[in-house]
Structures are given as structure tokens and as C-alpha cells.
């Protein structure tokens, strides 16, 4: 039987120390279709239900945070336009944590003081781990759109499920395994190399699981190369890979660095196809069509999958949706709404312990009709759904198949 985690144990497992105090990054905003202005400490004020939306709206990873927050906010606004939850409007409390774990915890506790009943967030792994640890004491229903580290929802070493935390995206291990299976089963590769950033949960998680699964499928990993945060010259690692003669290179890194790696690989004559994970979303602006030829990556969403969402996003924000994090934010909000609907149908008091537990129980046992697919949650609170495999046509990502 899985154990449910306590805040003390979560902090110890994640190695997170959360600082108290209000930081300017958590200024945030509060709005709904029915009301706006300063929030009170109550979870429901009149005919509103408060939902937090947390992400890095500024800083190095704001390209992901803004997409998630926009996608989630769009979905919550649509719910209000459709009449809300049993006539109650959703009041959105949104805050910017700047990609910093300590500030993320401060933002979360401030949201709790303002009376949220559930949280959409956080976005990247380190802040999400910090907020998940803090949220355990509150038993706050929490759905991250995009944090992929396995430990966000489940500690494998202690076999402990983080009972109040769910995610809309797939995990690092899942992505690594999927891309190894695709490389072997669909592309027929038998020799692969790996290049990844060390010291980062996302990059190391994908790399480790790709290697294990590729070898389990009968393939050979001819070389594993790593680099450090801040590195911009990858030619030493790429030259080593070139000398080992791989058929493909797995590069589970974020798109800015992938663009640099592909350019430098081309410059030394390493022209085999590269493979990647969802961190490649947005890569087309950082690499040429020739560098991307015959490359593949996995993602939660493929452009064109939902014309309604894409047109609604453009109408709301004046631009096309920026990357696959926006539909994941949308689906995280859809998941939260699903749970809130169950708690409201049960006639429970918003913000009460019973209410929050009802939200959690409904999500755990529910079926979510999302943009990224119809999904349920497994025993670790991870979504069960198919993966979109994308390739590049004339330098632009296109859906190859669901796998």
C-alpha cells in the first residue's frame, strides 16, 4: 500500500528548505468574471471560488510559465463564461514566482492566506517540488501542468505518493522510455549516444531512462556525454560522440541549448538525426531545417490538434499559442475544475478540509477530457495517456503519430 507523505518527510526527501516572508515577485492579481479586487481570507466570497495559478511570469523560464498561466487562465475564464461551477464564478489569483523555489513557496502561502481552494502550478520541477512540500500540510489540491520529475508526485525510494499533488504532463522516466522505444521499434536504431546537462532533474531523468530502455530493447549506447549549466561550447563532447559512430543522438535538453548543440554538431560533421523530449518545444526558432532533418521528439500536444483552443487563445491574448505548455496549463485547469465540481455537487464548504479532500478524491478517480488527450490518473497521480511524436518538415514541427 502506498504511503501518503507528510510535509516533514517531503521536505527531507526533496531537500527543500522553504523561507517565509512576502516577496515583491508574489504581487500577483485576483480576478473573476463576477468580481475583482483585494481577496479576503475566505475560500469563497459570495458566489466565487478562489483558484490559484502559479508560475514564472518573469525570469529565465518565463517562456514556459507565461504559456502555462495563460492556458490555465483561459480555461478558468471559459468556465466562468459557461456559468461557473453550479452558478459560482471562479476567482483567479495569479502570482509570479520568477522561477525561484523560495519565492514559489512564499507565493503559495500568500495564496492560501487569500483563501484558494486549489492550485494550478507550479511549472518547472524545482519550484514545484518546493510548493508540493509546503502544500502537504494544507492538503491543498495541486495540479502541475508541466513539472516532469517523478518525485513531484511519488518518491520511489520510500514508495510514498504525494497525496494532494497531480500532474497533467508525463514524467521524465516516461519520456526517456518512450523515446528509446520509438528509436528501436519505429526507427530501427541499434546504436545511440546521449548528450545531456548534468545536475538537472529533467535532463538527467530523461537520459538515464533512455539509456536503460534502449539497452533493454537490445540496442547499444556507444557514448554518454554531459555538460554543465552555463556551458556554450559542446564541441569536445560532440567530437567524442562522432568518433563512436552512433546512428542517432538522444539530446534531452531545452530548446535554446539544443539549438547550439545542433549547430556545433553540424560544424564538426556529426549529421546523424537527433532525438529529444518535450523540452524541444520551440526549437524551430533556434535550428535550421537541415539541422532538424529526420529528428523526432515527444510532446503532449501537436499544433492543429484543437482548432477551438488555438483560436480562443489567439482571441484572448492576441497571438498564437507559444508552445505545448499552454495546452498543458489548460488541461491542468480542466483537472482542477473537475475536482471542484465534485466538491460543489456534494454541498461542501469551499476551503474546508472535507472540500479539499473531495477535490483530491474526484481527480484521483476521474476521467479528464483534455486538449492533450483523454486521461485518467494512475496510483502515482500521473496521467495515463498517449504521447505525440513530432518530426520536422521544412524546419517546422509536425505530428508524425501518437505512440
UniProtKB/TrEMBL annotation:
Query: Which GO terms are recorded in the biological process aspect for this UniProt protein?
Result: amino acid transport
Q: Which PROSITE patterns match?
A: PROKAR_LIPOPROTEIN, TAT
Residue span, Leucine-binding protein domain: 48-393
Tell me which UniProt keywords the record has, alphabetically. Amino-acid transport, Signal, Transport
Query: Which interval of the chain is the signal sequence?
Result: 1-34
- Pfam families referenced in this protein's UniProt entry, alphabetically: Peripla_BP_6
PANTHER family reported for this sequence? LEUCINE-SPECIFIC-BINDING PROTEIN, PERIPLASMIC BINDING PROTEIN OF ABC TRANSPORTER FOR NATURAL AMINO ACIDS
Family the entry assigns: Belongs to the leucine-binding protein family.
Its recorded name reads Branched-chain amino acid ABC transporter substrate-binding protein
Organism this protein belongs to: Faecalibacterium hattorii
Amino acid at each position: 500500500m502506498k504511503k501518503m507523505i507528510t510535509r516533514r518527510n517531503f521536505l527531507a526527501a526533496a531537500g527543500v528548505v522553504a523561507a517565509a516572508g512576502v516577496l515583491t515577485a508574489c504581487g500577483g492579481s485576483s480576478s473573476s468574471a463576477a468580481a475583482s479586487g483585494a481577496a479576503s481570507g475566505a475560500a469563497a466570497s459570495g458566489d466565487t471560488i478562489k483558484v490559484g495559478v502559479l508560475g514564472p511570469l518573469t525570469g529565465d523560464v518565463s517562456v514556459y510559465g507565461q504559456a502555462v498561466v495563460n492556458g490555465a487562465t483561459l480555461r478558468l475564464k471559459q468556465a466562468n463564461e459557461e456559468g461557473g461551477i453550479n452558478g459560482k464564478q471562479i476567482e483567479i489569483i495569479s502570482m509570479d514566482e520568477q522561477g525561484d523555489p523560495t519565492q514559489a513557496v512564499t507565493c503559495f502561502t500568500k495564496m492560501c492566506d487569500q483563501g484558494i481552494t486549489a492550485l494550478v502550478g507550479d511549472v518547472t520541477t524545482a519550484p514545484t517540488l518546493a510548493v508540493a512540500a509546503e502544500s502537504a500540510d494544507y492538503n491543498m489540491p495541486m495540479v502541475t501542468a508541466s513539472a516532469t520529475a517523478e518525485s513531484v508526485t511519488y518518491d520511489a525510494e520510500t514508495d510514498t505518493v504525494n497525496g494532494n499533488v497531480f500532474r497533467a504532463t508525463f514524467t521524465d522516466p516516461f519520456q526517456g522510455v518512450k523515446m528509446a522505444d520509438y528509436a528501436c521499434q519505429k526507427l530501427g536504431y541499434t546504436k545511440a549516444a546521449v548528450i545531456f546537462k548534468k545536475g538537472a532533474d529533467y535532463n538527467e531523468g530523461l537520459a538515464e531512462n533512455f539509456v536503460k530502455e534502449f539497452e533493454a530493447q537490445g540496442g547499444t549506447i556507444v557514448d554518454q556525454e554531459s555538460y554543465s549549466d552555463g556551458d556554450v561550447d559542446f564541441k569536445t563532447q560532440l567530437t567524442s560522440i562522432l568518433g563512436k559512430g552512433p546512428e542517432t543522438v538522444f539530446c534531452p535538453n531545452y530548446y535554446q541549448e539544443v539549438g547550439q548543440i545542433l549547430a556545433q554538431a553540424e560544424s564538426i560533421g556529426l549529421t546523424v538525426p537527433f532525438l529529444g523530449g518535450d523540452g524541444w518545444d520551440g526549437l524551430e526558432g533556434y535550428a535550421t531545417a537541415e539541422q532538424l532533418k529526420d529528428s523526432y521528439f515527444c510532446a503532449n500536444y501537436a499544433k492543429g490538434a484543437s482548432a477551438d483552443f488555438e483560436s480562443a487563445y489567439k482571441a484572448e491574448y492576441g497571438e498564437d499559442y507559444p508552445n505545448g505548455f499552454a495546452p498543458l496549463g489548460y488541461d491542468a485547469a480542466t483537472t482542477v475544475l473537475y475536482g471542484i465540481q465534485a466538491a460543489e455537487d456534494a454541498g461542501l464548504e469551499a476551503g474546508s478540509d472535507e472540500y479539499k479532500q473531495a477535490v483530491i478524491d474526484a481527480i484521483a478517480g476521474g476521467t479528464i477530457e483534455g486538449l492533450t488527450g483523454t486521461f485518467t490518473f494512475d496510483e502515482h497521480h500521473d496521467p495515463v495517456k498517449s504521447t505525440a511524436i513530432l518530426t520536422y518538415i521544412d524546419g517546422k514541427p509536425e505530428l508524425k503519430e501518437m505512440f
